[in-house]
Amino acid sequence: MGNNQYPPQLYLTRFAINFPLTNDTQSFVRQSHPLQSERSLIREGAACHCERLNGASQSQDSEMLKQVQHDVFSFVKRTYRPNVLSSYRLKKSAFTLAEVLITLGIIGVVAALTIPNLIAEHKLKVLHTQFLKTYSDLNNVAKRFEYENDMTVYDYDLSGNHSSTDVLKKILSYFIGKEDGMRIYSDYDENTEGNSSFENATGYTPKNLAGKKVKIQPCDQSIIIKEVGGRFFSMDDSISKYENPPQYGPKICVDINGSKGPNIYGYDWFVFVFTKEGGIKPYIGNDAANVTSEITNPERACNYNYADVTYTCGYFALLNKSPENPNETYWKDFLK
Q1: Domain assignment of residue 248, given as a range
Q2: pLDDT of residue 312
């Protein structure tokens, strides 16, 4: 301890200041080492700020040290037993099994209620994006077609002897890659389910919003062509065959995500028509099988109770307005 005024033994008595000493120890300390300065009582024990007088003997120091060590050891052992500390920490810092199971149960219920809705909303957002991309691609193709051929798709189809397949192939030549498929046609046999030509060409028959397989297709006069992105394209009759040609045409139908599904008119199947001005727009004619004048109530052929092909849904999908409620959206509120 060098030049410190207290011997090593008395430093331990000062260390014991925060521990309660027995009455015998307190009396022993007072008799053996009279205080040069004040005494202070802390809690139930006496803590002595002892200063050794010149007359104290080494044997008294030794005996006092042993007594203090005994009291300190007894206090620590009595108050801080390892098993008591361990039990205290476990009770204060850990969850019970019941609490963990209840928490997991709550998380499971919340996940079961929210995850399916989130997945459904994500799928509809993807379809909405694919729809807008298809609409943009077809408009760009129509403009490029007019620029390179010095005539619109409408004029080209009206000009002469072009089959629907020929027109479709010429239009699809502006896409990066394509694969010619099988010829399709409408199936008028009511004794069979679905459309066998579509089943052979795509592996499925498109359905309407009611979930019924559509036998009479809006675009059934060409082959099916699959472009590199997986989309299916087909076309209807050439407008040159009409005695009084309409002011737009021909119709082109697109499965915007290929065979992924749900393969429903209004979800991923849509009907468009080329315009006389050189663009493209959703078809809302009076008849799904032919190119006819536009109707004033396109919501008639875009609802869940319509028995035939729901061919006018592209109009509402582009506006993103529900055909049932104009204050609601098409992609989030109308589609189920």
Answers
A1: 126-334
A2: 97
Number of residues written out for the chain: 336
- 169 and 302 in a single domain? The answer is yes
Q: What is the pTM of this model?
A: 0.69
Q: At what angle do helices 164-172 and 97-149 cross, to 10 degrees?
A: 110
Are the beta carbons of 239 and 158 closer than 8 angstroms? yes
276 contact partners, CB below 8 Å, separation of at least 6: 152, 154, 155, 247, 248
Span 133-190, pLDDT tens digits:
999 999 999 999 999 999 999 999 998 788 999 999 999 999 887 888 888 888 777 7
Which residues, including other chains, have CB under 8 Å from residue 66's CB and lie 6 or more apart?
none
Percentages helix, strand, coil for the chain (3-state, rounded to 5) are 45, 15, 40
Q: CA-to-CA distance for 300 and 323, rounded, in angstroms?
A: 9
d(CA 307, CA 316): 19
158 and 213 in a single domain? The answer is: yes
What residues contact residue 214 under an 8 Å CB cut-off, 6+ apart?
A: 195, 205, 206, 207, 208, 265, 308, 309
What would the pLDDT profile of 260-279 be if each residue is shown by its tens digit? 989 999 999 999 999 999 99
**Could you say which of 42, 72, 91 is where a domain stops?**
91
Domain total of the chain: 2
Query: How far, in Å, are 143, 156, 257 from residue 147 at the CA level?
Result: 6, 12, 28
Please, are residues 259 and 181 in contact by the beta-carbon 8 Å criterion?
Answer: no
255, 189 contact by CB (below 8 A): no
Q: Which residues pair with residue 41 across a beta bridge?
A: 46
Residue 233, classified by CB atoms within 10 Å of its CB into exposed (0-12), middle (13-18) or buried (19+), is buried
Angle 164-231-229 from CA coordinates, rounded to 5°? 125
Residues near 50 by beta carbon (within 8 Å), at least 6 away in sequence: 6, 10, 13, 14, 29, 33, 35
Side-chain half-sphere CA neighbours of 10 within 13 A: 22
